[in-house]
Amino acid sequence: MWSLIRNEIRKMISKKRFIVVLSMTFGLVALATFGAYKNIGYELPKKRAERLKESINYYEEKKKYALENNQIVKAERYGIWVEEDKNELAIKEELLDNSIPCKDRLKKEIEFLNKRKGEGATPSLDTEIQKLNDEISEKQYYLDNDLEYDYNSDGTAFIALPSLLKTIDRLFIIVIIGILASDIISGENDPATIKMLLTKPVSRGKVLISKFLTVVFMSNGIVLILEFMAFIFLGLILGFGDPSAPIAVGTKYKMDMALVENTGQSISAVIGSSYLVTTWEFTIKALILQIFLITATVSFCFLMSTLIKNSSVSTGVSFISMLILLCITVKITLLSEQGLPNILNRVLPFIFTSYFDITSVIRGNWAGELICPLITYKFSLFILTAWIIVCYLISHFNFVKKDII
Q1: 80-87 CB contacts, 8 Å cutoff, 24+ apart
Q2: Rg (alpha carbons) of the chain, rounded to whole number
Q3: CA-CA distance, 127 to 253, in Å (whole number)?
Q4: Domain residue spans in the chain?
């Protein structure tokens, strides 16, 4: 078996397609790294304060314009938003004051977050309340474990990592695997080649599984190695950060039709359902889910390569199918209002392409985005495992039973 796998790896590396994939992957990961660097720490106190200043200036201009045009109601609304932003900015500037001990600033922020939670504590805002609870839990963890929180940080490699993984997993994996895996069988569908393979003292099943394991190993290996390089690069520039820092994950959701009339939404977070993990535990969870995701994607492309004889057609079908499914998921989660669930909301949780946003899956937010409380970290692993097994079994049955003339 290992000799077959080594032979398949040599064959794959020798192809021009592999060089193209490697070059594309390197370029795309470089772009993703640059994007993660530019957008790092969007919610860090320092950058939040900068955005609040911009927001205050914007709403003051809108208020001025509304008053000039006798739009009193709009002007009052803009005035309220200006005051809210000014109050939050005052808190943020106090948190950024290094002359104040870190513990005192943490207590101040927890007090501010609890105040915000109390102001909005209505049944229609359970999701917002849970987000505030998560922030409070994270800050309380720093206090309880005597950890320093750097309010003036510009970000670290660990903070940038979720953004990096999200960008890579959403589109780049489709490009990489769609090209690399889609012709591993159909690319050798020449009768002479297949006859030569099958005249060797090796069963068809072993030939197939050696090809499958090769593309799984190579696909995961390429992505993980380049991600590791990107992480090291970000760490050298920004610093790596504290791997023991807390992250709230596992938020559960529930359907609540009573919300529809008031908010237009039909799903909300279960208050108190989140729990804390360390940053390194979050990273391990993300990498495990990514490996399952890559393997499920490989399995689908492998199936297309087994069913379709023409290499170009199998690559095209795999790539276009996954791209369409991904676009549907993006439309549902980003462009549609979270109203009543439709047929797509019921189907998408069972499609492997719905789990490319692995950080949202781990945090639990993905259940709210897809309006499906079933979605959890374990559920996603189960669905991806099912796709791996089913796609491979169909590929195996088709290949083993295929007639060679």
Answers
A1: 81/55, 82/56, 85/52, 85/55, 85/56, 85/59, 86/56
A2: 25
A3: 9
A4: 2-41+155-401
